[in-house]
Write a structure and sequence with these properties.
alpha+beta; 2 helices; three-stranded mixed β-sheet; disordered N terminus; flat; 135 residues; single chain
């Protein structure tokens, strides 16, 4: 068996990452709603069939997700960027919802990795980003 390559540290960015359009404008997209807070883990509602965590842990995770999305939204003015809100459209389509409704998968499946967008989620976020680029 071959030795695994050594891991090297990646330097931290000095500025917030932003996609730059050909016009020179900058865009920052927020994340999707893994836990919407509307019947999903964000409000601590039971979701054990999809996500086997304690209710308190689900609520904590949802709060951290909202905090994570707040940080880039606050930085758009600092970097003269446009915020593309891909979080709000995903509310109600979290990993606790049934197949066909959810945009985030609770586990690894053919259409998406666990706690990441599935095909429908990727399409919806793409529509938001393309819509912002066209404005």
């Amino acid at each position: 068996m071959a030795d695994a390559p050594a891991l090297t540290a990646t330097p931290a960015p000095t500025a917030a990452p932003a996609a730059e359009a050909p016009t020179g404008e900058r865009y920052v997209a927020l994340g999707d709603s893994f836990s919407s807070g509307q019947g999903g883990p964000g409000d601590g509602a039971p979701c054990r069939e999809a996500i086997p965590l304690a209710d308190g842990d689900l609520g904590w995770f949802g709060e951290k997700e909202r905090q994570f999305n707040t940080m880039p939204a606050q930085q758009v003015n600092v970097y003269d960027a446009t915020c593309v809100d891909t979080y709000t459209p995903s509310i109600g389509r979290d990993a606790c919802k049934p197949v066909g409704v959810r945009w985030v998968e609770p586990e690894d499946v053919g259409d998406g990795a666990g706690f990441h967008p599935n095909g429908a989620g990727h399409r919806a976020m793409t529509e938001e980003v393309v819509g912002a680029l066209r404005r």
